Amino acid sequence: MSGSFEKSVKGGTKIKLAAPKAKYVEHILVATHAGEAGVAEIFRALQNRLRDSTWTIVFKALIIVHLMIREGEPKVTLKYLADSPSKLAISNFSDVQVQGTNIRHYYSYVLTRAKAFRDTKIDWVREGQGRLKKLTVDKGLLRETESVQTQITALLKCDVSEADSWSADLRHG
Fold first, then answer.
1. Nearest to 50 by CA among 112, 103, 113
2. Selection from 26, 27, 46, 30 nearest residue 38 by Cα
3. SS3 assignment for the chain
4. 105: Cβ–Cβ under 8 A, 6 or more apart, which residues?
5. What span, in angstroms and rounded, lies between the C-alpha atoms of 152 and 161?
């Protein structure tokens, strides 16, 4: 099983400046339905891709992680990252490259989202709608509001509009 996920991770994070192909992403998302063991298998395959020196490979690896959070089995990937944030470690990129800055900001957003999940046990993007309206200060309103604000701040730093046409190429394949 691990060999097939390795192939999908490599296929989904090729150096080519294009979005990860659906056939690879769909196979990777299957792993999230196997729970933590499946997600751990994907992260074992992703580790070398996240630490690669080529920005397109690292960026696409982060996209894969984000898709696992957004479209995979709810909470499984976030819980894995919340428990093991070091599994998301990326290569160092310089601020001289626009891509380096964007990759670091995108990495920071994904990590911030995982930490917020660790602290609140809520995936605010998928299931947080309306939750703050029901909370009282005694039940954690201020703490959870701060968590949402921290995630929004991290997300707003991800300004792919500065990254020329490569961001459109990655989004639209």
1. 103
2. 30
3. CHHHHHHHHHHHCCCCCCCCCHHHHHHHHHHHCCCHHHHHHHHHHHHHHHCCCCHHHHHHHHHHHHHHHHHCCCCHHHHHHHHCHHHHCCCCCCCCCHHHHHHHHHHHHHHHHHHHHHHHCCCHHHHCCCHHHHCCCCCCHHHHHHHHHHHHHHHHCCCHHHCCCHHHHHHHC
4. 154, 157, 158, 159
5. 17
Instruction: Give 73-126 pLDDT, tens digit per residue.
Output: 999 999 999 999 999 999 887 766 778 888 999 999 999 999 999 999 999 888
Cβ contacts of 55 within 8 Å, gap of 6 or more: 93, 97, 99, 100, 103
Tokens of 3: 């060999």
pTM of the model: 0.87
CB distance 109 to 157 below 8 Å: yes
